[in-house]
Amino acid sequence: MSMRRNSKITTLAVYVFLASTCGDALAQAPQEMLGYPKYEIISIGLSKANDINANGEVVGSLGSLAAMWLPVADGGRPDGLNMLPGLCEVPCGSEALGINSEGVVVGRADSPVVNPVTGARIQHAVVWIGDTVFDLGAAAGSACCEDVPFSHAYRINNSRQIVGISGVFRWGYIFIPRPAIWLLDAGFGLEAGVHLLGRNPGQSGSGFDINALGQVIGAIDSYDFVPSGKAFIWLPEPAYGLPLGLTEIGGVGSRAIAINDSGMIAGETSTLYCSELWVWNAATKDTVVLERPAGPCGTLADLNNSGTVVGWTGIGATMWREESLIYLEERVQDLGDWHRLFTANAINERGQIVGSGFNGDYEAFLLNPLGACCDPVAGICTNEVPSSRCVGGSAVWWEGRTCDGLPQACHAVPGACCDPDAFGSCTETTWMACDCPTCVWHKLQTCNDIECSHGAIPTVSEWGLVVLTLLLLTGAKIYSGWRWSEAT
Length: 488
Hints:
Layout: H1 11-28, E1 39-43, E2 48-52, E3 58-62, E4 65-70, E5 80-83, E6 94-99, E7 105-114, E8 121-129, E9 132-135, E10 148-156, E11 161-170, E12 174-176, E13 179-183, E14 193-196, E15 205-210, E16 216-220, E17 230-235, E18 245-248, E19 254-259, E20 264-270, E21 275-281, E22 287-289, E23 298-303, E24 309-313, E25 316-321, E26 324-327, H2 328-331, E27 340-347, E28 353-358, E29 362-375, E30 380-386, E31 396-399, E32 414-418, E33 426-430, E34 440-443, H3 460-487
Antiparallel strand pairs: 1-29, 2-3, 3-4, 4-5, 6-7, 7-8, 8-9, 10-11, 11-12, 11-13, 13-14, 15-16, 16-17, 17-18, 19-20, 20-21, 21-22, 23-24, 24-25, 25-26, 27-28, 28-29, 29-30, 29-31, 32-33, 32-34
């Protein structure tokens, strides 16, 4: 979410500021954090990474064009880097800003419409479904002031409800954003299409995030990201003791940045020098103020359903657990060619984080959390495994843990192993040790608990037939050998 709330700060300026303040502060950061994960870092080929979904699919941009990165092939798209189509031919720019679990992507793209005053192309909110881009359009402006409508889409939930801004350029150059929601299908008592969320069509502001329940947060009465607005929540139906519609939840200079499915909201409030960073629980109305460095300022970008918040400070890419601040650069197992991790822009339910850094070029990264992968059935535990690779019906992943530090040992689960062969038996062992072709393993059972049937053992007469057959075969072989030697 970072880029859309700091439009007046260029990427280069952010990088220069962060790089100039990083060195000393990193040396003072805590080194050991029990239960906090280590990460592996992956370069994903994007210039910017803005969001990551539950499947580890990342969206952002490559240069001035919208792009996405897939860990595995999906829906006809190959794994790796995929470019997304725009609304017009080059030199039209675009950027992907949000993605849901279905792989439906939203963002903004230059449209064929040109601002009559500046001559620049007007950007419209768009949605990419598969390889097709759709223009979401923008709400109309005032007839009085030669308004030129524009729009940006920031986030989308799994119900395909989209949040962002649908604003106007007044007289062609005064930028006025307005919080908006797009419904691809009718819902909340509203028709499909774009709907402004302010108390009146002219109320300015921005909608930054939407959760699974269609609850929207952002800032109202704000212009061009100037810190004069107030944080708000918009509810499609009454919840948390709050009424339907828009409710202000912060004072002047506040903005709500992200919301999870339980109604936890991450935001910030401007102060004289830096912003105060906070998490507000809509259900309990409790506010937790997040730790920030004594010197450099910080900003928030996203939070997941576990309540983990990501963003950045003057020191670099940052994560908050509870109120505690964690410098992500220190938690990477092997930075390799990465000199600095500047921003953390999004986090998913697996704890995967995307952001921007420098590895000889300014580029996007993906952080995969490492932990202990315990398979209690097989009796195997492996350290420093990403959650995406801890798979299997009985495998359990422990974020930030080692096998020795698990609250319960990763022992093999016992069971009864029945070999139904005639000479087989029943033994009490693990699933891994029960490895004969015909064996059947019964989890948490003993041999006394199961009926382990075996094939019938041959009778004496049957044994006699077996012996006679063997003698006849042996005699036939001897006789054949004697005849052959006599003939030569």
